[in-house]
Each structure stands twice: as C-alpha cells, then as structure tokens.
C-alpha cells in the first residue's frame, strides 16, 4: 500500500508538471507574452505566468502573496485528503493539488477585474462619444473619461493618458499599449477602431456608441446564459464534492468496510474514479462558457 501511495503521488506530480508545461507553451504563443517579455524581466519562478497575467490586468501580485496562498492551499488539500482517506501517507497526494490554489486565486481576481472593466467601459465609451460631439479631440475625450471612471477603468484609461503625456506615444500607440493590460476583446476593438479612424478618418463618436451598445448586448447575453446554465454549474459542484464526501462519511462510520478501497488495488480504482470525476466536472463547467 505504501508503494502504491508513493507511485500515486509521483503520478499526480507528473500530471501537474504536464499542466504547467502546456500553460507555458500556450502562453509563449500569446501576443501578450511577447509584449510582456519586452518590458518585464522574465522570472524563473514556476508561477511566472501568474505574475504576467496579473501585470497585464494592472494587478500587483507579490511573491509573498503567492507563497501564502500556496501554503494555505497545500495545507487544506492535505487535510481534505486525510479527512477522506484517514491515511497519513496517502494524504501526501494533497500536496500537488495545493499548487492549484495560487492559480485559482489569481484567475478569480483577474476575472472580477475584467468584468468590472467591461461594465465601466460602456459608460466610458458613451462619455467619450459625447465629448467628441461637443468638439473635444480624442485625447481630451480620453482624459475626461479616465477622470470620471471608477477603478479599474480609471487606471487602465489613465495609463493611456500617461503614455500620451509622456510624449513618446501618439493616440494609436497609447491605445495599443493599453490594450495589453486587459484580456478583453472589447479593449482590443477600441484600440483597433481608434487606430483606423486616426489614419483614415470617420465618425469616431458614432463608432464608440456602437461599440458601447455591442458590449452592453454581450453582457446581457452572458447574463442570460449564466442564468440558464446556473443549474448545471450547481450540479457540477455537487457531483464533484459528493463522492468524496460520501467516502469520508462511510470511512468514519465503517472503517473496516472502506479499508479495501485504500489498499493497493483500491487506490488504483480510487485514482481512476477521481480523474473521471474531475474530468466530468471540467467538461460541465466548460459547456457553460460562452465565447463571442
């Protein structure tokens, strides 16, 4: 049984390493990674991709924060595995699971900031359109929108204003540089239409209004999809927790009955079933994601 636990731990660690490798390969083909590498010194930290994603969204994530979340994640994971199995040696399997905690924490912070920016960008675009119709130029409209907006929109738009005031960027370059701060198709579109109109002309105020309407419609559609898929997401959460909760309860009520599950053959079956449960959970969660 001890040997099987060690083998299972090594297998779990291998899967986690493969996950990190895939993330690194995908990141290196992303345009944000290329721009980030020209302005930031690359870190040898295994969580470098988290620092990059946080920086791209304007978040200041320190190594101490990551290490704190990692330590908490590892401790909680080991405790949960021990609560389910009751085997100290098998609880080591929770160690690689704890490495997912920093990833989940950073991604949730980025997701919340991105959604807040989308909501604020609607108002900012409408305000910029009104400023343009009032006779202001694009730079003045951008400055006014940055002053009036709330965080994080004021920080992101304010970054573009700072680039303009530095004298080293024109409006097109400032917008393009700002677009790397957010993983938002709307911000990329804003930079694109601003660039096109700056070069070839056009009714930029009308385009900004249309872009604001488009963002509003997409957010409304996403809310409808979220409401429609809420039951499936709750089902996925229950199906993920329930099997392990049942094993833990049954182990406490009847340890002798559950003992074969933690033998050599039982650990293999438990590992396979756990992998299938997690895969099903990820598939169900993925079905509720709408890309547009």
Explain what you see.
There is one protein chain. The protein has 292 residues and is mainly alpha-helical. It folds into 3 domains: 1-98, no CATH class; 117-203, no CATH class; 229-292. It is 80% helix and 0% strand. The protein is built from 14 helices and no strands. The chain has helices at 2-28, 31-39, 48-56, 63-85, 94-98, 100-133, 138-148, 153-166, 171-179, 185-200, 204-228, 230-253, 255-258, 264-287. Helix 1 packs parallel to helix 14 (264-287), helix 4 (63-85) crosses helix 6 and helix 12 runs antiparallel to helix 14. The termini are far apart. Mean pLDDT is 78; it is low at 28-43.
Question: Which key terms come to mind for this protein?
Answer:
292 residues, T2SS_GspF_sf, Flp pilus assembly protein TadB, transmembrane, 14 helices, membrane, 80% helix, 0% strand, 3 domains, single chain, mainly alpha, elongated
Mass-distribution shape: elongated
Number of DSSP E strands: 0
Question: Helical content, roughly?
Answer: over 70%
The span between the termini is 49 Å
Number of discrete domains? 3
Tell me the major beta sheet: none
The secondary-structure class comes to: mainly alpha
* Strand fraction: under 5%
Q: Please tell me how large the radius of gyration is.
A: 24 Å
Order of helices and strands: HHHHHHHHHHHHHH
Number of helices: 14
Short description:
This protein has 292 residues and is mainly α.
Topology:
Blueprint: H1 2-28, H2 31-39, H3 48-56, H4 63-85, H5 94-98, H6 100-133, H7 138-148, H8 153-166, H9 171-179, H10 185-200, H11 204-228, H12 230-253, H13 255-258, H14 264-287
Helix pairs in contact: 1-14, 4-6, 6-7, 6-11, 7-8, 8-9, 9-10, 10-11, 12-14
């Amino acid at each position: 049984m001890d040997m099987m636990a060690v083998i299972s731990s090594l297998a779990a660690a291998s899967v986690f390493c493969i996950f990190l490798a895939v993330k690194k390969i995908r990141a290196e083909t992303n345009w944000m990674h290329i721009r980030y590498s020209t302005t930031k010194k690359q870190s040898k930290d295994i969580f470098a991709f988290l620092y990059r994603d946080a920086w791209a969204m304007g978040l200041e994530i320190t190594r101490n924060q990551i290490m704190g979340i990692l330590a908490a994640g590892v401790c909680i994971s080991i405790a949960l595995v021990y609560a389910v199995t009751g085997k100290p040696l098998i609880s080591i399997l929770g160690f690689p699971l704890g490495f997912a905690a920093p990833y989940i924490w950073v991604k949730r912070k980025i997701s919340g900031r991105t959604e807040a920016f989308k909501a604020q960008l609607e108002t900012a675009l409408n305000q910029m359109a009104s400023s343009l119709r009032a006779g202001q130029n694009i730079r003045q409209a951008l400055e006014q929108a940055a002053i009036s907006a709330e965080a994080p929109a004021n920080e992101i738009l304010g970054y573009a204003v700072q680039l303009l005031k530095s004298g080293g960027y024109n409006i097109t370059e400032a917008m393009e540089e700002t677009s790397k701060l957010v993983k938002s198709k709307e911000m990329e579109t804003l930079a694109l239409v601003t660039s096109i109109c700056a070069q070839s002309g056009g009714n930029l105020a009308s385009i900004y209004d249309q872009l604001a309407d488009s963002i509003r419609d997409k957010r409304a559609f996403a809310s409808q999809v979220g409401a429609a898929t809420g039951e499936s997401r709750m089902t996925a959460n229950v199906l993920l927790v329930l099997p392990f909760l049942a094993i833990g309860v049954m182990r406490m009520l009847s340890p002798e009955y559950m003992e074969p599950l933690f033998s050599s053959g039982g650990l293999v079956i438990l590992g396979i079933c756990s992998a299938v449960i997690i895969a099903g959970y990820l598939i169900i969660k993925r079905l509720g994601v709408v890309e547009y």
